[in-house]
Amino acid sequence: MLSKSQIAKLLSCSISRRKTDFYVASSCYLCNSFCTLTKPPERNESPEIPSWVKCLDDKSHGSPDADENFVIPSLASWVNSYGSYGRTEVAKVTSSDIEEINVEKVCKLLRNRYSSPDCVVAALNASGVGSSSRMIERILKKFSNDWIPAFGVFTWAKLQMGHHHPSVLCDLMVDILGKSRKFHLMWKLVEEIRMLEGYVTLATMSKVMRRLARAGKYQDAIEVFKEIEQFGVKRDVAAMNVLMDALVKENSVEHALEVFLQFKACIPCDIHTYNILIHGHCKCKQFDNARKFLEEMEQQGFEPNVISYTCFVEWYSREQDFHNVNAILDEMKKKGCSPNTVTYTILMQGLGKAKQINDALGVYENMKTIGCAPDPSFYSSLIYILSKAGRFKDAWDVYEDMGKQGVKPDLLTYNTVIAAACEHSQEETALKILKKMEEDSCKPDLKTYASLIKMCCRKKRMKVLQFLLNHMFKNDVSIEVSTYSLLVRGLCKSGKLEEACLFFEEMVARGIVPWETTYKLLVNKLDGMSMGKQKEHIQKLMSEAKEWAEI
DNA sequence: GTAGGGTTAG
Questions:
Q1: Which spans of this chain does UniProt mark as PPR repeats (predicted)?
Q2: How many CA atoms within 13 Å lie on the side-chain side of A323?
């Protein structure tokens, strides 16, 4: 039986740079050791002892009959077919297997902490691994919260292939740099691909605008929009909507409004533009202003739709102003605009938060009579509400009922059920669902793991915690500041200070600046336990992290 | 990426 690592070892020494479609992995004819990987033999080659099988290990050969299973048996997903040549069976290894192996090899290398992308490039150059765009995409997703390895691998592959990656990959890189607030590098990359035909699109500039807005650089985001034609992207309503949406989502309806007023004369807006403005104003509880835009859109000939009204329902609900919620629902009825699943979900959530559980459950009944079908998001909210009300058993029943109703759970549903199980300390159930997700090919995300990690810290389940961290890496979920904070906070609360320090250290080593609250909590705890030495160490790490952040 | 995804105290 060949292990994945044996194949990886073998492949890495010989074939990584070749481009043939498939290779043959075979075990030695004489010994059970895993030996060689070559192109398949020609049909007319002797099947007795294929000449192309050579043993790489120079170990003394025992009797070939000692172990009947010396041939390559099941390689599961690694191998898609077998051939038989005499006593040596062969397995085809496709180019996607090679990609898999290269991805693993590169990731292993990237887990060493490099201080700059250049160091990553040098290390990868020395490794002799080959690259492909598809492979880089997978690695970038794995390291999307870790800009140094991500940018290193991106640069290395570009140099190795001698040309730029496809534009979607460039967009991904732009986004990663923006997310880490490496705006200087982000711009350098954008400038670089601007020279290439068709590379910079609205998708690229959307990443730029959204990342700038997220960093609170509202004015910079607006400047990008004003100058967008210099990048070969049309300054039209689609681009304007992206900008306004980014500004609203990052809490500046004021800037969104400024853009709207400045451009409404030259860029004809659409229904989205108005809905973004309504959403923005509802979000900061400026209901009168929101109403003004609802009227303005009508005057401009755009009939308000279910999205327009649902914004009001959401934010009146959040205010627990159910009088106005009902007024909006009545208005919708009058205008012949039916609420949809989203509207009902929001309404039910609002009632749930207001602790009006029975009214919340009534929404579900109401939907059924109207014939509005619940979707996975709706069920997730229902599960959430029941769990928060301490009714885990009912929440679980709803989850099970979904299947019977033919609604497939999605990521949100799984996350909600896992969070509910964790909150009720149902460890086994929570892990069971994690497994179920795998079976359903539903990829877990940071939130999936966050609830599980929180529970493990609380219950001091260190082994399960380690299992989860490995699980995350395998699933391409990159650990970032919120996860580290969760770990440090959770372990502090459980009195596991040594472990908390280790995670704090790892976070800083990855170039992440810890949150001030996380830092203070840890230092206070260390102080309380008279762990002076560790406290000094953490203080030193924190000031280092802050220094780097400023560079 | 025009609306729902639900907490960073204690």
A1: 201-235, 270-304, 305-339, 340-374, 375-409, 410-444, 445-479, 480-514
A2: 0
Residues A452 and A410 in one domain: yes
How sure is the predictor about A101, in pLDDT bands with cuts at 50, 70 and 90? Answer: confident
Q: Write out pLDDT tens, residues A432-473.
A: 999 999 999 999 999 999 999 999 999 999 999 999 999 998
Please report which helix (H) or strand (E) contains residue A91, including its range: strand A88-94
Write down which residue in A425, A457, A489 finishes a domain.
A457
Same-domain check for residues A433 and A510:
no
Q: What is the mean pLDDT of chain A?
A: 84
DSSP 8-state assignment for residue A323:
H
List residues, Cβ < 7 Å, touching strand B.
A 210, 241-242, 245-246, 249, 271-272, 275-276, 279, 305-308, 310-311, 314, 340-343, 345-346, 349, 375, 377-378, 380-381, 383-384, 410-412, 415-416, 419, 447, 482, 485, 515, 517, 521
Q: Which of A72, A95, A118 is the last residue of a domain?
A: A95
> Does this model's pTM top 0.90?
no
C-alpha pair distances (Å), A450 with each of A187, A326, A430: 33, 36, 12
Using the C1' atom of nucleotide B2, identify the protein residue whose alpha carbon is closest.
A272
- By three-state DSSP, how is residue A422 classified? helix
Within A250-390, where are the H helices? 253-263, 271-283, 287-299, 306-318, 322-335, 341-353, 357-370, 376-388
